Amino acid sequence: QVQLVESGGGLVQPGGSLRRSCAASGSIFTITTMGWYRQAPGKQRELVATITSGGTTNYLHSVMGRFTISRDNAKNTVYLQMSNLKPEDTAVYYCQTTATTLRTPLALIDYWGQGTQVTVSS
Fold first, then answer.
1. Which candidate among 21, 29, 30, 41 keeps its CA 20 to 30 Å from the CA of 102?
2. What is the pLDDT of residues 81-111, one digit of tens each?
3. Whole-number Å distance between alpha carbons of 68 and 121
């Protein structure tokens, strides 16, 4: 009912930058919070950054000052600008949103993007 299509990602050198985007489409009634999560091999999935519909942001402590989350409500799109990337940032990054659909406009459901590899290495 809600599809999240990610773009960006890939291989970058330490200290480099990447810009991710994620566009939501489908039978959307309301999009509330949007965010990014990541999962490295052998580790649990962790929250990287979230942004509410009102623009309030929350970041994983280790990425504060390096990553910036933003959104364009008119385009139903969330972005993640990643700067000064470190090898420890290597993971599969997933876009996420909490939304309602036209069919069930009162039901808050989490939707996930397909996940995209980000590798930070020399």
1. 21
2. 999 999 999 999 999 999 999 999 999 999 9
3. 21
Q: What is the DSSP string of 13-77?
A: -TT--EEEEEEEEESEEEEEEEEEEEE-TTS--EEEEEE-TT--EEE-GGGTTTEEEEEEGGGTE
Do 66 and 83 touch, CB atoms closer than 8 A?
Answer: yes
User: Residue 121 is encoded by which pair of tokens?
Assistant: 């290495």
Question: What is the three-class DSSP state of 107?
Answer: coil
Q: Is 10 helix (H, G, I), strand (E, B) or coil?
A: strand
Contact predicate 107/100, CB 8 Å? yes
CA distance 77 to 88: 26
Would you say the C-alpha torsion 121, 93, 20, 113 has a positive or negative sign? positive
CB 10 within 8 A of CB 3: no
CA distance 32 to 49: 14
